[in-house]
Write a structure and sequence with these properties.
Layout lengths: L11 E4 L7 E4 L1 H5 L3 H10 L9 E5 L2 H13 L2 E7 L7 E8 L2 E8 L8 E9 L3 H12 L3 E10 L5 H4 L5 E6 L1
Parallel strand pairs: 3-4, 3-7, 7-8, 8-9
Antiparallel strand pairs: 1-2, 4-6, 5-6
């Protein structure tokens, strides 16, 4: 019997990035691996295979890389949540607080339909601000957020609590 692949072996720790005192969890080795990437996609999609997901939503930018194959695995479409000013069509935006200042995410106004059952996917949840803003945006557009799936959760930062969704699935916890 095959042992499940230990995906944590493919996450590189980078100390003092992007600033001193931060330990950055780099998923680029996982994304580059022919064995780890499909295993990660399967692990993200697995709990939602029977949930009738209409759309997978990925947050810029690693959420695009993981969310699109999760959408394929679930047999549905994919939609992007982007930083302000990156989308060419009519958009709806949500501005949220950062540690120092604010940021804004947006989506096309026709990206999801009212009542669509959606799954939010990103590589990492830390403080949860960006994901919470994306969820707010999805709800403002009338979507039902079935859950959120993250490759990594940084447990000490409490981001999960900010999301306001019942189902938060995480593959790796640090």
């Amino acid at each position: 019997m095959n042992q499940p692949l230990d995906l944590s072996r493919f996450v590189r720790d980078v100390p003092d990035f992007p600033k001193p005192g931060i330990l950055f969890r780099d998923v680029t080795p996982l994304l580059a691996s022919r064995e780890a990437l499909p295993a990660a996609v399967d692990a993200l999609a697995a709990p939602f295979r029977k949930e009738g997901i209409d759309q997978v939503i990925g947050i810029e930018s690693r959420g695009f890389v993981l969310g699109a194959p999760v959408a394929i695995a679930l047999g549905t479409g994919f939609t992007m949540v982007r930083k302000k000013g990156k989308l060419p069509w009519q958009t709806r935006a949500v501005t949220y607080d950062l540690e120092y200042g604010t940021d804004t995410v947006e989506m096309h106004t026709d990206a999801v339909q009212p009542g669509h059952r959606v799954l939010l996917v990103d590589d990492l949840v830390a403080t949860g601000g960006t994901a919470a803003a994306a969820i707010q945006l999805l709800r403002e557009l009338g979507a039902e957020v079935v859950g959120a799936a993250f490759l990594i959760e940084l447990l000490g930062l409490g981001g999960r609590k900010r999301l306001g969704v019942d189902r938060v699935h995480v593959v790796l916890k640090y």
